[in-house]
Amino acid sequence: MSGLKAYRFSADEMNKMLWLKVLFIENGFLVDRFPEVYYDTFNNACKEYPQLERHNEEGTPDYLGVYIFSSGDEPCLEKCSSTKEGVIILFSDRIEAFSINLIAEIAYPILEIENAIREVVLYHELGHWLSHWSVCAGVNWKCGYSSHDKITHEAFAQLTAYWAVDGQPLNSLILKQYLTPQRHTSPYNKYLDLIGKSKVDILSKLHLLRKFWCEFRISDEMAFELLKMELIEKCVSYAFEKSIRKIKLESQMLNNELAFQILAMGWSIEGDKLTCIDYDFALCKLFALNYFQDDDLKETLKFEKRYCSEDTQKGISLIHRFDL
Length: 324
Ligand SMILES: [Zn+2]
Description:
Layout: H1 11-26, E1 29-30, E2 37-40, H2 42-48, H3 61-64, E3 65-68, E4 87-91, H4 92-102, H5 110-133, E5 135-136, H6 150-165, H7 169-178, H8 199-212, H9 220-228, H10 233-242, H11 257-264, H12 276-288, H13 295-307, H14 309-321
Parallel strand pairs: 2-4
Antiparallel strand pairs: 1-5, 3-4
Helix pairs in contact: 4-5, 5-6, 5-7, 6-9, 8-10, 10-13, 12-14
The structure holds zinc ion (ZN).
């Protein structure tokens, strides 16, 4: 329980939250309740959550509010740190001050401006909670969710706000003009690269990323690349699940025709693992021999080539050695 003031949603906000809930449910997520939301001053929030002190990037939704989670105590099989469900705090004083600053620029009554800002910030923070905590096929982001992965997390949060705002003029203006920094490197404007994508595409990738996040040590940058890419979902699943790059090769997998072919081409196994270099080499070789007739496998290969670059460099010397 928090000593902060609970937030009371407006009717518009409640409608939009239900709309978000339906959107996520239709895409396989479980949303059976919403997070705790508070509306209090930044200083009061800091008293409850001292780690907030460092939280001060202006001109972003997270300057006016926060989704704050704590670390959990159940590391996963991959020994990633786990997290607990967070709460949302909207900073009343910062939202008021921000609204006053905008009066001169926006021809709307101050109360409407303030309501719009609060709403956009709420949707952004709800985006954090939905991407972090709502379960899809038994998986959420309890494990491996880190505040360091700014691009990925802010992309999901800003996109959620963008979807919820849904073209409403004042809210859109606030989000695009005042809560999306122009600075190209800002993680808060990366969502602009994704707004043309379907919600189904984005949400299926959210599930994919969370599912494989820990096991494959997906980086923030790689996750964003995945979000931008036109992917055939089953190819990515294939790449992740069958990629021998980081998977312990189980003996029954040798029955898989592809694995057999790879092994037949002189793959070496160290312990029960195949190294990345060998895998890239084998992929290159299989590609050179036109082994990949199947479109799914071709897509998988493209995916692999893209993300094996460092090791592929090493693989190139092997290709040379094997006269390909
Ligand atoms: Zn955020």
